[in-house]
Write a structure and sequence with these properties.
three-stranded parallel beta sheet, rod-shaped, P-loop_NTPase
Length: 239
Amino acid sequence: MNSLYSSMQQIHGILTQVFPNYLKKYPATNRDLNYEAFNNNKNIPYIRIQFLKGNTIGLDLLEEITNQTKALARYFLKATDETDENFRKVEIELLTVQNVLSTFTQQIQQIESNQKICSNAIAEAKEDIAGLTDKTTSGVFWVSAESTEMLETSISNLAIDINTIGKTAKETLFRTLKWIASLQAQWLLVVGNVDADELFGNTKELLLGSWKRNTYGHILITSRREPKQVYRLTNKAYT
């Protein structure tokens, strides 16, 4: 046995071989070698672990798997935290959008309320002006300058009452304004909804034409625009 041991030590270096590249079978007989007989190896605990389907793995491999598992766990924890943070950001953005929409809704409601107040104020002004009409006033006339069509319609309605209908809208306007200018008592012409950016056509003639010179009446303009804007629009003094 000692001779065999010395031979294998010299030829195969069994004392310096390492796992897993070690001599497993005796070359002469091709039989498995039993290393437990050397150096009292059978009394040294052999640590091995059965993993998954019973395969034996070393502690180094197990440690590597453990480290990789820990790294994977840390990655998932970080990813979860980032996902939660993204959800929180989305929630904050949605709340911001909701607040903005709520503000817009309030502003729209305020605008609608202001428009209603203006409409009521105009209606009350009509009643007040109508109540001021007396023997010294020839009349109060109402026309709308909201659009070209509205102006032509309101002028036509007035022309029907005073018998100044012409063959065209322009002729009807000319005859109607001439009739108003010929009145010998005070009159008031209320031109409503003068909201356009520029005056042109019949609207310009109505507000800026020379027909009203040396007459006994006044023109009252209603508009949603600021007084300074109306002043620049009509190039007239305002109070």
